[in-house]
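Weekly sync notes, structure subgroup
Attendees: PM, AL, DS (notes)

Item 1: joint prediction request from the bench team. They want all two components modeled as one assembly rather than separately. Inputs as received:
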Amino acid sequence: MNNSHSLNTATWIWYPGDFEIWLSNKMQVRRTEREAVFPPLWRYYSPYPLVTFQTEVEIPEDDEIKIYSEGPFQLLIDDVQIYGQPKSLKIEAGKHKIAFKVYNQEVLPAIFIDGRYVKSNASWQVTNEDKLWIDENGKAQQSGTPWMPVGSWNFDAPNKKPSEFQLATEPWEAKHAETINGGELIDFGKETFGYIKIHGLNGAGKLTLYYGESREEALDTEKCETLDNLEFDGSQDAIYTLEGSKAFRYVQVQKEDSLQYDSISMLYEYLPLDYRGSFKSSDAKLNKIWDVSAYTMHLTSREFFIDGIKRDRWIWSGDAYQSYLMNYYLFFDSQSVERTMVALRGKEPVTAHVNTIMDYSLYWFVGVYDYYLFTGDTKFIKTFYPRMKSLMEYCLERRNENGFLEPLEGDWVFIDWADGLPKAGEVSFEQMLLARSLEVMQVSANITGKAEDESRYKQLASELKNELFKVFWDEKNQVMKHQRLDGNIQDMVTRYANMFGIFFNYFTEEQKESVKNKVLLNDDILEITTPYMRFYELEALCAMGEQAFVLDEICDYWGGMLNLGATSFWEKYDPKQNDDEHLEMYGRPYGKSLCHAWGASPIYLFGRYYLGVQPTAPGYTEYEVKPNLGGLEWIEGKVPTPNGQVTLFCNTSEIKLSASEGVGVLIIESSVQPESNLGEISKASENRYQLTIQPNQSYQIKYKAL
Amino acid sequence: MNNSHSLNTATWIWYPGDFEIWLSNKMQVRRTEREAVFPPLWRYYSPYPLVTFQTEVEIPEDDEIKIYSEGPFQLLIDDVQIYGQPKSLKIEAGKHKIAFKVYNQEVLPAIFIDGRYVKSNASWQVTNEDKLWIDENGKAQQSGTPWMPVGSWNFDAPNKKPSEFQLATEPWEAKHAETINGGELIDFGKETFGYIKIHGLNGAGKLTLYYGESREEALDTEKCETLDNLEFDGSQDAIYTLEGSKAFRYVQVQKEDSLQYDSISMLYEYLPLDYRGSFKSSDAKLNKIWDVSAYTMHLTSREFFIDGIKRDRWIWSGDAYQSYLMNYYLFFDSQSVERTMVALRGKEPVTAHVNTIMDYSLYWFVGVYDYYLFTGDTKFIKTFYPRMKSLMEYCLERRNENGFLEPLEGDWVFIDWADGLPKAGEVSFEQMLLARSLEVMQVSANITGKAEDESRYKQLASELKNELFKVFWDEKNQVMKHQRLDGNIQDMVTRYANMFGIFFNYFTEEQKESVKNKVLLNDDILEITTPYMRFYELEALCAMGEQAFVLDEICDYWGGMLNLGATSFWEKYDPKQNDDEHLEMYGRPYGKSLCHAWGASPIYLFGRYYLGVQPTAPGYTEYEVKPNLGGLEWIEGKVPTPNGQVTLFCNTSEIKLSASEGVGVLIIESSVQPESNLGEISKASENRYQLTIQPNQSYQIKYKAL
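Output from the run, pasted for the record:
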């Protein structure tokens, strides 16, 4: 993994991706349904139980290294085995090859080496098959060893072991408690996540906790999705903290009379993250939407980016892809993106699509590209290129004789939760995602120096795009059709491929206009009811300059959830449903997740399409700022970049802007020639002006909004 | 795994091969060198941490099942989730689908289900990716799930958990103790394996155990291969048993005066196995050789068939292949063969040869075929055919442009430990093993019902054999050449391909005679000094009827080790070496293993070529008995078959024979027409007669040996 901290610090290291796979295995079985464990439906991979860490050093004087290991190890200095399991060792001045072979089948092999000169860090390499053998005469032989750069994160102390990883916690008090049905209903005031804590526990007997993201759920002892049955024998401590974490706002406590307690609190559990992005506007409701979105996003940004905190508590590639984008406008935490991408991809062999879903394999590739674009990091691609390639080969092998993906046995085509959405046969949406994924492979092959792969993927992408338009583009109506079944184009147009075609820039400007009017703004086209696809629908409209229209939609849709009392955003929201129905899903009265990452998309929309900031070259070395008020009086905020941020204020007559790094282009739409305190404003076209933004300068521009 | 016990018994079940992989990972890191852990050089695989067990039952009345699980589980009855983690459950009369999804990342997921009708056993199926998902409306969907038959062994009680597997132990007393160098030297009388036990321990201080397979090794505190440094603080129990097992005959104890003990004993650790095969003859030395071979074989038949008990304590495919063959003539323990084959093969993906050695991948295939031939079991092949195929594809991809295997980067060509043995380029021996492996794939594809694969492998085998003879067979000298380098046949003949060509039956009778005389009996050809290749050399000679010659060789070679005091047979023996040299190997004074499985080959040779028993159809449904006295007055013994044995006595005038199953052909070489108490003897050719052997009859034949 990309290691953001200095090579001068010793840190725990492991086989790249293995900590993430181990942790994701552990995390994803924490979903429960009424005390039944509910693990994912896809395959789990495992860390390599036996790996060899190696480094080559040249040290100016003798060094004394301290050795910490998760698992027994074999230590070789310059190919000579050191006897015993030393806790420290003197390394003599000079050049040395140092190798640790570590075994750990229970957790994962990891080491922490700390000397003055020799330190375990991201510069080490590791292999899962060292192939080092000693021949009959005692001579060491080694060839064909597949070395990889090690993985690491922030385990920078000997006692901060990867196997003991925990998120942070802090105590939270209840906001309200009321007696109900002979028990008690506790309200924490808003959606939250963590461990219930019982204070003043005394006596023996049974106690049950019924959790609810809604009051209704917590009160429904028969149907609430999660609960904990506890039993105490009287020997317990006065303060009891549950082992299992849950998502809830409310908890109902019912107990036997023989058992007493004073009060209930909780340990709020979270991933420590900086809120590096921000957004404020002249509209208080929008500000509230941004705040609740940010909270929703933080609740679902945990060990990994998960879908929802009550359910599924799993890593879904389609959901995570949106979390990545939101993250770039809120936390810009690249480690969380890497952890999630690695956990989703798993290892070899590829035997099913990511999460078993065709579209979710494809989002994974696009996520990798975005990571490169936003962070500028190439190490991830270089390290995991073989896993990118094997997943792509899996996808390519599943194409039909027309070169299109259509579901084979075991393939789930998701696209969206929508009644009457056809998913069989050749669906244009999937082909478009595959084309984009092939372009990602082309770029990644280039970064990795695989010229042959690069030209192959380039050709495949180009051929597929041609075929996509040839088959699905309706020349007469100038829209993308949805599906071909048994060779017959179906007379159906949906929003999916049409909106992706806009922000993938696969359409000409004329095509985009047609699609906007005939599909996106056409109420006869199958409506989108999940925040998941609302994300892309609104993005496409914003990309077409419809910020004012989108603001209204955001106010209606996310504002609608707030009006219903939402303290975090939901998995699904249909304004036409009545009160009880809002909690239902999957045939269960409280099946719906009321804190779902894909509900937080305003974070992304506000940052990218109102503040208008986006990278145009990897790692924000170049970027664009194109503020759009969307009818608001003013907006202001920050968009994080790898090592800083872009800070912007904009009203109808003034723009204030500064940035920490890179070279930006500010695009101003103005009815008059704008004036800047710095730099030179050039005219790009009618009512459109540009200003180059240098880092660490405060720009103040006078202009007149159109 | 093939489950030998009844389906009426509940047993722990797991994903097939996963227990074996887990256990082999654990076992193979138990090798130590002076307290340094010494793990294998090849990659480790892992059990699947998340699997779903499933069965369909139809039960005549309600059943109450008890549920035991290694790991938390999700239980679905008829696709409906049962809440909680029940310890027992009522299943109503009728047809049901029962599914347990079990998570265990630390060990391996396993369950034990016990009801009157519903029991976990070999009839269940399992998958590592169930792909069972619940759609938006709560409807279960599943397709493309790769189901496999479960694995099981003999864990037939709830508390006999796979994760707690232990070999059996029994207490052994020391044979002799003497004071030496201020400490004590304990002699257990013969090579053994287990845990040192210290009795009457008292006081505090340090104690060191120096182990030796030889007296010299145990006395050499600086150079002995294994040792244990212990420290006691005075609070220990009076009896202390070491946690780590070791191989030794001798152990030297040195300690501080502040610490006292009374005596040293050990816990002998072993796999409980029946000695179903036996051999006795008129020659006491041969009998002793058989006994020591059997003991050597038992010591190395443990969790798996390992190479040596001091070193490497690893599973090597070439070594294991010989253990399989010896096992068929001694224990006929099919479970041990299956465990070993599965552990060797690992899982997907294949990224290196088995043990990283080209020949060791190929022996693996031949071992699978032999398993089918001796046991008649087809379940192993049917279950693991995909793993057979992926390993074969790996091999095939590594062929050069001539269709021959030659080592690529990371490939180790072993063949044998022999000075001056060329291993580079195209070596005939490797091609011959590949041809035989392709034939195994042909048979296995047929068993698995893969007609297309079958014909492909058939053709590949036939083409390769043609090419092998075209390139390497020396028409003029009528021998197989050893090597082609850069297109040039090298002027070298070795024993390897020539002896395999005999018992693979790749040579015509004329070719065999030529090879016997020009290679096998030719002292100018590079000599074989390992019992490993002696195995095949002597087998080839026996297959050519040279039993008398081979007996002399056995007496010299194995008798030579006995004369030097061997109590188990060695990794390597060169009669020309002097005393100290016998212990050296790998550049270390006690590097040689003095108890090595491949040293036990007389078990196989006596059973197969003197008692003369071998299956001629799978599972001994048909077999051949061709006794050969090799110049001895008499021989007698038993050869195990799947459900019984063939019992034979033979001297120069009488043969007594009975068998438990199958139909045999007794082949008698006699100068007179033999007479039998049962059946009808027919004449096959000059001095050669045949008698069909029916099961459960006692045959007594009078004849006159040639």
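Discussion: Chain B touches chain A through 68 residues (CB under 8 Å).
Action: AL to compare against the crosslinking data before next sync.
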